[in-house]
Structure to design on (136 residues):
């Protein structure tokens, strides 16, 4: 366990509960400290934090990365937001990374349904199918 070196830990207390926080959760969630999250992209970490603090994500983000991060830190609300956003933003550019992320978190509730809904969209577009086939 480590303690946050930020001057204001009230935000972290609201998100994580009473200190001390676990090292991984603190590193990922404390924007005042130097971040050292090397298993997720910067976009995923920023999007994850924005959702935690505001409940929404206003920037173009790595939804698959945020989904995997939400799984790692067991934040069910963020998982639900990610799945809905992935369905709404599915495109030729996102189809492969989204399915890769869904496969990584296939143990989660609602992932099977989200994956089926995405597959229904993809099967209607041969270009998307080609993109998936080329990625395998």
């Amino acid at each position: 366990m480590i303690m946050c070196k930020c001057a204001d830990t009230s935000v972290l207390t609201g998100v994580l509960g009473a200190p001390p926080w676990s090292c991984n959760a603190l590193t990922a969630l404390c924007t005042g400290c130097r971040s050292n999250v090397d298993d997720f992209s910067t976009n995923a970490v920023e999007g994850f934090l924005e959702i935690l603090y505001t409940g929404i994500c206003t920037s173009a983000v790595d939804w698959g990365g945020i989904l995997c991060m939400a799984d790692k830190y067991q934040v069910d609300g963020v998982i639900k937001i990610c799945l809905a956003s992935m369905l709404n933003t599915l495109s030729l550019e996102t189809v492969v990374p989204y399915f890769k992320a869904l496969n990584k978190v296939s143990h989660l509730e609602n992932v099977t349904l989200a994956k089926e809904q995405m597959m229904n969209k993809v099967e209607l577009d041969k270009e998307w199918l080609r993109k998936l086939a080329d990625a395998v």
Remarks:
- Residues 10 and 85 are 29 Å apart (CA to CA).
